[in-house]
Design goal:
With about 400 residues, the chain is an alpha+beta fold. The chain folds into three domains: about 160 residues, 2-Layer Sandwich (D-amino Acid Aminotransferase, Chain A, domain 1); about 80 residues, ATP-grasp fold, A domain (Dna Ligase, domain 1, 2-Layer Sandwich); about 150 residues, Succinyl-CoA synthetase domains (Rossmann fold, 3-Layer(aba) Sandwich). About 40% of the residues lie in helices and about 25% in strands. The strands form five sheets. Strands 7, 8, 9, 10, 11 and 12 form a six-stranded antiparallel beta sheet that branches. Strands 1-6-2-3 form a four-stranded antiparallel beta sheet, covered by helices on one side. Helix 2 crosses helix 3 and helix 11 packs parallel to helix 12. The longest helix has 20 residues. Manganese (II) ion binds next to loops. One of its GO terms (cellular component) is cytosol. Its EC number is 6.2.1.5.
Length: about 400
């Protein structure tokens, strides 16, 4: 689960990680109030107004702007709230901004030597260890640094059984070329950051930039945090940070029915049991000239209700021109799924798109018979290749 920058900073503060202070606002008026309070608390006169969306690259897209007085705070907050912000991570349609973070300007006016660094922590699955990535090229697109100057990314692996050792935190501070007070501050920063990462069961922390001010303070200017969904049950407070406005509405609906659904851009809706079979089905759709409209794993115990919920989801996507149902009857019996399909079809009523059903495994023949005798516009197939051919045929018909 992704969270917003302001929520990530709240977590960091709890662990003693210094951050660029800020207050979240949903209207220009609230933004002005926030700015006044920040001036009282931090002494800052200038503020940065930062769009809160679940995507990076906001600065380049016009979602991060400096305000030098309260009028500008109001004006800029008014521009950013409600805008459709497009960044390299949002896709061309962008994301609507509902909130801004009004933050203290930490690049002090006249500060000749603010230095930006990059720090992230994530799980290296191949090594079975967490890895801290550090770079002096902060504020930049890290993918670009990785491509053009990979030697500028320093990596330190952390054995989860032992945890982050003092010497490792110092190695990172050395890699940044720091000394004196800033060195000590960075060691503390990295140590607390790592503790926050482990305690929250995160799968990624990315702080870009980490800032060193001219008076040698180290602080997080940005914060991108991804939490492990499977661990949220033991972090009720973090689970509440979920912002469903940031998620695809169809995916939100799917999660309510316990369906594993990912929306894609193609024209063939697919409903499959098992993630591996779902991937194979998407491949076969592509091979037959279609493009999958979604990934949908209805799980091992598919019944009439799950099949119907899956159907409804797929049908809400206007791009869908055909549906391929591919079920392997292992735990679930094919006749039961077939009955589920027929029942769902009747319940939903007006289904405009052709449906190809491939049932294999326990009671497959019985399942195919139920489909064929239902009198509905459903085609049954036995082999995967045959199913793909039928998808091709129906797509050619609608084209
Ligand atoms: P991102 O573009 O989504 O990664 O958002 P960031 O939070 O990283 O902000 C983008 C850029 O805005 C940073 O790299 C900084 O250069 C700039 N920025 C952020 N905070 C401040 C600030 O307090 N003062 C000034 N002058 N610039 C800032
Ligand atoms: Mn950033």
């Amino acid at each position: 689960m992704n969270i917003h920058e302001y929520q990530a900073k709240d977590i960091l503060k709890r662990y003693g990680v210094r951050v660029q202070e800020g207050i979240v606002a949903e209207t220009p008026e609230q933004a002005v109030e926030a700015a006044k309070r920040l001036t009282e608390e931090t002494g800052t006169g200038w503020h940065v107004i930062k769009a809160q969306i679940h995507a990076g690259g906001r600065g380049k897209g016009g979602g991060v702007k400096l305000a030098k007085n309260l009028e500008q705070v109001k004006e800029i907050a008014g521009q950013i709230i409600g805008m459709q912000l497009v960044t390299h991570q949002t896709g061309p349609e962008g994301k609507k901004v509902h909130k801004v973070l009004v933050a203290q300007d930490v690049y002090y006016p006249g500060d000749s030597e603010p230095k930006e660094y990059y720090l992230s922590i994530l799980l290296d699955r191949a090594k079975g260890m967490n890895v801290i990535m550090a770079s002096t090229e902060g504020g930049m697109d890290i993918e670009e640094v990785a491509e053009h100057t990979p030697d500028k990314i320093f990596k330190e692996w952390i054995d989860p059984a032992v945890g982050l050792q003092g010497f490792q935190a110092r190695k990172i501070a050395f890699a940044f070329g720091l000394e004196g007070e800033a060195f000590k501050e960075m060691v503390k920063f990295v140590t607390n950051l790592y503790k926050a990462y482990v305690d929250t069961d995160a799968s990624m922390f990315e702080i870009n930039p980490v800032l060193k001010t001219s008076d040698n303070k180290i602080l997080a200017v940005d914060g991108k945090v991804d939490l492990d969904d499977n661990a949220l049950f033991r972090h009720k407070d973090l689970a509440e940070m979920r912002d469903i406005l940031e998620e695809d509405p169809l995916e939100v609906e799917a999660s309510k029915s316990n369906l594993n659904y990912v929306k894609l851009d193609g024209n063939v809706g697919c409903m499959v049991n098992g993630a591996g079979l779902a991937m194979a089905t998407m491949d076969i759709i592509k091979l037959s000239g279609g493009e999958p409209a979604n990934f949908l794993d209805v799980g091992g115990g598919a019944n009439a209700q799950t099949v119907e919920a899956g159907f409804r989801l797929i049908l809400q996507d206007p791009n869908v021109k055909a549906i391929l149902i591919n079920i392997f009857g292992g735990i679930v019996r094919c006749d039961r799924v077939a009955n589920g399909v027929v029942e769902a079809y009747k319940n939903i009523g007006d289904i405009r798109v052709p449906i190809i059903v491939r049932l294999q495994g326990t009671n497959a023949e019985e399942g195919a018979r139920i489909i064929d005798e239902s009198g509905l516009k459903v085609y049954s197939a036995v082999a995967l290749k045959e199913a793909a051919q039928k998808v091709k045929d129906v797509l050619a018909e609608v084209a």
